[in-house]
Amino acid sequence: PLAHAEKLEKLIAVFDSDAEVNELKKSVINIDCALRVFLGALAEISREEVLSFTTTKIVDTLRSKNMAGKIVESANNTLGIFDTVIFGDIDKGGIEKAVNEVQQLLEETKKRGYY
Asked: Which pTM was predicted?
């Protein structure tokens, strides 16, 4: 999980909410994929398998692995916002909130010793 967390941190560090719509969407897709792989690693699920999961299945899997409620809720909120952006509306405020929540999720998982 550490390598996936580091990749996610790098993507967040270069994230630009003022980017043009296509670039913004590309950034969200990259962060979304990296987050899914990170969460999968925490739950001991391969990259290939977790990328085939729906958001609901990822959240249910995290719950079944007894991840902290705060982490499960944060993952659910963030992935839900990213799904909306990827498949529909670009809401810059929502995207910024989701990216900040990913950072908090990383901090919380590290604090709890998940990686």
From this structure: 0.94
